Amino acid sequence: MFLNYDNTFLKTYAHLFTQPHFVIGDYINGVRKKYLNVVSYITIALTLAGFYTKKLLSGNFRYFANSR
Length: 68
Fold this sequence. Notes:
This protein has helices at 8-18, 20-28, 38-57. Helices cover 59% and strands 0% of the residues.
């Protein structure tokens, strides 16, 4: 179960950008089931960022398509 069935990675990601004070406060207060483990979150985020960067630097990445 890498991403769990309830998809806690996306929930953690969304809440970190919309309500970071709640995520940090809940984690400090002991709420662990609601969000993804910190180590797992960082590992997944760095892996996705690495794949994105590799794709971006490979030259095959087309962010803007030519309209001509």
